[in-house]
Amino acid sequence: MEFLRTPDERFSQLPGYAFAPHYVQVDDTEGGSLRLHYLDEGPADAPVVLMLHGEPSWSYLYRKMIPIVTAAGYRVIAPDLIGFGKSDKPVRESDYTHVRHVQWVRDLLQQLGLKDMTLVCQDWGGLIGLRLAAEEPALFARIVAANTILPGFPMQDARVKAVFGPVAKLRTTLGFGSWFTFSQVVPRWTAGLVIAMGTARRMPREVRSAYDAPYPDHHFMAGARVFPRLVPSDMANNKAAWRQLMQWRKPFLCAFSDKDPVMSAMAGILPAIVPGCAGQPHTTIRNGGHFLQEDQGEDLARVVVDFIRRNP
Q1: Which residue intervals of the chain are DSSP H helices?
Q2: Through-space distance between the first and last CA atoms of the chain, rounded to whole angstroms
Q3: Per-state percent for the chain, helix, strand, coil, to nearest 5
Q4: pLDDT tens, position by position, for the chain (312 residues)?
Q5: Helix axes 98-112, 124-135, angle to 10 degrees
Q6: 90 bridge partner residues
Q7: Catalytic positions
Q8: How far is CA 65 from CA 14, 136, 194, in A?
Q9: In CATH, what class is 3-310?
């Protein structure tokens, strides 16, 4: 598989990102391998919190949360998905599939020998992480879903209909449709621009530049550009994952934000049909856009820590 690798100097002196890099080689499924980058912070023997980002962000998105979670005594693993951050970037859009992304993250977790983790997932981090949880439930002890959902949820279920009616469906469809059109039609958009558009607070110029660091030019952005087209893909496996999630009884918390034009309307779906959500204090993060880790990362980190402590 042909790939690009962002030069290290692109990541020097990024604001708030003084974390040591770690790497593993994962199977590219074509007889070769790809280098996957991850952060590994906190005590090596502490319970693990796995933080999965979406697109077009990378582990930089979690820089505000990591110090709070590690200070509480936990170990944080925050990968860069293949195609993002410091990880290798296959050059063909066809190289990116939902199945491959699930496998690449699974490969990382297996190499690190991790289990009984707390999954924190947002955006595509949920499409990948919730699939992994359904397929490899022994890896996870609890889940925090933030502004994410796994496509293929049972629309005809009466509980889903009760919380995701026509107005919510229309709002979500229009929100995603606007993003999809922008991502496929606008030439040469940048990650920093998209993340700034998806936040509720003004983002400093140097932070916006940090989100652009992994992508020296548009040739590095095949993954970011193709991801919106992958959302409705692999639905057979998604539906199988939902059958497992609808039996998930381990602690499951939803922490959605109030100003996400796509996901805010979907906040009630998981609590309605995932048994592990029962009795949990699902929360709305105020003044947070789609990228709530950027807007209100400290608040979300405290929600995660409190959730783990309540559900040892």
Answers
A1: 66-71, 98-112, 124-135, 158-163, 166-185, 191-197, 205-212, 222-230, 235-245, 269-273, 292-310
A2: 42
A3: 45, 15, 40
A4: 999 999 999 999 999 999 999 999 999 999 999 999 999 999 999 999 999 999 999 999 999 999 999 999 999 999 999 999 999 999 999 999 999 999 999 999 999 999 999 999 999 999 999 999 999 999 999 999 999 999 999 989 999 999 998 888 888 888 888 999 999 999 889 999 999 999 999 999 999 999 999 999 999 999 999 999 999 989 999 999 999 999 999 999 999 999 998 899 999 999 999 999 999 999 999 999 999 999 999 999 999 999 999 999
A5: 60
A6: 3
A7: 123, 260, 290
A8: 16, 25, 21
A9: alpha beta
User: How far apart (Å, rounded) are the C-alpha atoms in residues 231 and 307?
Assistant: 29
| Distance in angstroms (rounded) separating the CA atoms of residues 222 and 79 | 18
3 state SS of 91: coil
Is-contact 41 17, C-beta < 8 A? no
Q: Please state the domain extents for the chain.
A: 3-310
The CA distance from 85 to 248, in Å, is: 31
User: Residue 99 — left, alpha, or beta (φ > 0 → left; ψ -120 to 50 → alpha)?
Assistant: alpha
Q: How far apart are CA 154 and CA 194, in angstroms?
A: 30
Say which residues have a Cβ less than 8 Å from residue 252's Cβ, sequence separation at least 6: 142, 143, 145, 270, 274, 276, 277, 280
Instruction: Tally the C-alpha atoms within 13 A of residue 160's C-alpha that lie toward its C-beta.
Output: 14
